[in-house]
Amino acid sequence: MLWILFAVAIGFLSWGAWPRPVKGGHGAGATKNVPVSPGAPGTTLRVATFNIHGCKGLDSRRDLSRTANDLAGIDIAALQEVHDSWRAPRQWLRLAGQVGMGALNSPARRRWFRPHRSNVLLTRHPPGRWSRLPLLDHAVLRSDCRNLTVVQINAPRPLWILFTHLNRREGRDEQLAQVMHMFLRYSPAVLLGDLNIRRDEPAIRDYLARGDITDALHATLDSDDAGRIDWILCRELTVRRGGIIASGASDHPLYWCDIIVE
Fold first, then answer.
1. Residues 149, 189: Cα–Cα separation, whole Å
2. What is the pLDDT of residues 59-105, one digit of tens each?
3. C-alpha–C-alpha distance, residues 86 and 99, integer Å
4. Which architecture characterizes domain 2-261 according to CATH?
5. pLDDT for res 154
6. CB–CB of 220/257 below 8 Å?
7. How many other β-carbons are positioned within 10 Å of the β-carbon of residue 108?
8. Local structure of 241: helix, strand or coil
9. Which terminus of the chain faces fewer neighbouring Cβ atoms within 10 Å, N or C?
């Protein structure tokens, strides 16, 4: 009898440990609400994308306060690799509290019976309706579970924010095509995320050649960005300037740019 109970326990734990995708969904408003401002006409917004690597820095130490410090002065930030595990619990909620921003949590993967890894949007402006879409190759037997989230921000006119994190290799180009197809449906719009692709790769080159998409970081950064895989793409928006914060709080820098919402 004991060996049967042991086998059942091992099977249960193995089942719980196996990564599973989170289904798509839709809703309205933030997961965590704080007092936010709708903005005013002509508002300048500082938007950012930041793969926080579970708040694990280049020194291999996890420190949410370092990540929060990098987010100072940002109005809208898309975060990737946000963890919720026993070792790193509810990072999205704790970060939102430290920076005083609303948060929309978009989990992509479940593990140990809970959302385990997420993309998160932090915002100082009220989010409206949103939808979460599983990306291609988002299958039960894969550990790389990816999604795209589309949210309307009122700042003050409706502004569409899309945020995601794509596979590094297999299926990435197909996921990119799916994301760009959605991006081109919205305006004015900003696409934020770790796309795991460089500017010179064929899968994205044709999109950058269009006249209605602005690669905001390439247009504003002074440094060579040929190896960059984090992106801020804009449609029907004026981009003023951009920058990089590379504090070592993650294995990625934070990238930001200023956009004008007319």
1. 13
2. 999 999 999 999 999 999 999 999 887 677 788 899 999 999 999 99
3. 22
4. 4-Layer Sandwich (3.60)
5. 84
6. yes
7. 27
8. strand
9. N
